[in-house]
Design a protein that fits this description.
Shape: elongated
Number of domains: 3
Distance between the termini: 106 Å
Structural class: mainly beta
Number of strands: 35
Largest sheet: 8 strands, parallel
Number of helices: 1
Strand content: 35-45%
């Protein structure tokens, strides 16, 4: 145990401490960091986490005539002693900008004769936020919503895009700040690509359109959708909360919820609403999805991901890179794609009937399914699934299927789909056909 400064001790120092995680230390004072003497350090993108002190300042103790400047600091779960996470002694001063103070008995204590200035601070889960002469502007409260590591920002965090421009161009992990460019920076040491939650109130008799953040799309709520004023909230996710199995994640995941004026969930609607989600070609290409047509917006039904396309009023617009769906329920959504490519099929007349041939071009195929129809533009849903399924022959090898079907003067058409793990399907293959006709000698 150190007397002072269990993690770092600065005395008469003008050091710059940048991008550090100071955690699980113990000292009499300043369990994580002790700044003393005539120090003028710059502390940027630092995390002080789960430190303890026997006396004061479990995260940080500022003594003497020290004047540290702290930019984008995360103080979380520090404990012990008088309960203060930060203690600034008489004669010392500290300036904080873009700070998160989470889960302390007392967040910050300024002793008599100390000067503490705090600009844009998120206070969350502290028994008391501060004591003494603390000059504060830009006060915020609400969930920090940390990830499991205790300092990276998660979905729904109040810290998202709530900071002041402080000349800091990256974060704790060396990632760019802010994200995306042109938005306010996040509070704390982490800069997340997540957008802050957005909400709109839909009156019963008025149509409302909510623009989703970061160009994600829009939510169109028609008049008459609800019977009482209802708040719709969009919360962006980094990745889906449920495993996507064989489907590839194409960069958009979010949760939609609705609540009434008392905060009760609203789950039933008298009409459908329209949700438009934008994406970029880079999203599906980076996910390894072989074709844009493989994209679909899926919703989580409590046990599985369910694709929304095709549906009435819905469309995949590959020219403008957007998916439009019409829905009557709210849940978690994700833009997913099937990583399997459509087979390229040819048809031949064989001794036993119509022979279909194609080459397996990629791994991950569990089986091929063959469908037959008597209309040249039949869909899989309207076609007859033939048996047996075709076992993949191996990448680079040819697969075949023979259909012995024969009916006088009946033309037949075929589609083939590849099926992968989790029942993920490729788009349908090109259509091929067998034409049946007779020639009568002497006829013209």
């Amino acid at each position: 145990m150190a007397n002072n400064g269990g993690g770092v001790y600065l005395n008469d120092s003008d050091a710059t401490l940048r991008g550090n995680i100071i955690r699980d230390n113990y000292a009499a004072n300043g369990g994580g960091l002790y700044v003393a003497g005539d120090s003028r350090p710059a502390l940027v993108n630092n995390v002080l986490l789960a430190n303890r002190a026997g006396g004061a300042g479990s995260a940080l103790y500022v003594a003497g005539s020290a004047r540290p400047v702290l930019l984008h600091t995360t103080l979380a779960n520090n404990s012990g002693g008088d309960g203060s996470g930060v203690y600034v002694a008489a004669g010392a001063a500290a300036v904080f900008t873009n700070t998160i103070v989470y889960s302390h008995t007392l967040g910050v204590r300024a002793a008599a004769g100390a000067t503490v200035t705090m600009a844009n601070t998120l206070w969350d889960a502290n028994a008391s936020d501060f004591a003494g002469a603390v000059g504060e502007t830009g006060r915020m409260t609400g969930p920090a919503a940390f990830a499991a590591d205790g300092y990276h920002l998660g979905p729904g965090s109040v810290a998202l895009e709530r900071g002041l421009a402080a000349g800091v161009s990256d974060d704790l992990d060396g990632e760019s700040r802010p994200q995306p460019a042109g938005t306010p920076p996040d509070l704390g040491a982490d800069e997340s690509p997540l957008a802050p939650p957005v909400a709109t109130v839909a009156p019963p008799a008025t149509a409302v359109t909510m623009t989703l953040p970061h160009g994600a799309g829009e939510l169109a709520l028609p008049a008459g959708l609800v019977t009482t004023a209802t708040t719709f909230t969009y919360t962006e996710l980094l990745t889906p909360t449920e495993t996507t199995g064989a489907f590839a994640f194409a960069g958009r995941s979010f949760i939609l919820v609705a609540t009434d004026a008392s905060g009760n969930p609203v789950t039933t609607f008298s009409a459908g609403y329209t949700l438009t989600i934008n994406y970029s070609d880079a999203d599906w290409q980076a996910a390894g999805i072989p074709a844009e047509e493989n994209l679909n917006l899926y919703y989580w039904n409590g046990s599985a991901w369910v694709g929304l396309l095709p549906c009435a009023g819905c469309a995949l617009d590959t020219v403008n890179n957007r998916i439009t769906v019409v829905l009557d329920h709210l849940t978690e959504f994700a833009l997913l794609g099937n990583p399997l490519a459509a087979p390229a099929v040819t048809a031949h007349k064989g001794t036993g009937g119509v022979e279909l041939r194609w080459t397996q071009t990629q791994a991950g195929v569990v089986r091929y399914e063959v469908y037959r129809g008597t209309s040249p533009y039949f869909t899989l849903a309207a076609g007859q699934k033939l048996s047996p399924d075709v076992t993949p022959p191996g990448v680079g090898s040819q697969a075949t299927f023979t259909d012995p079907f024969s009916a006088p003067l009946t033309n037949t058409y075929y589609l083939v789909v590849a099926v992968g793990a989790g029942e993920a399907q490729s788009p349908a293959s090109n259509r091929v056909a067998a034409f049946h006709f007779t020639l009568t000698p002497g006829a013209q």
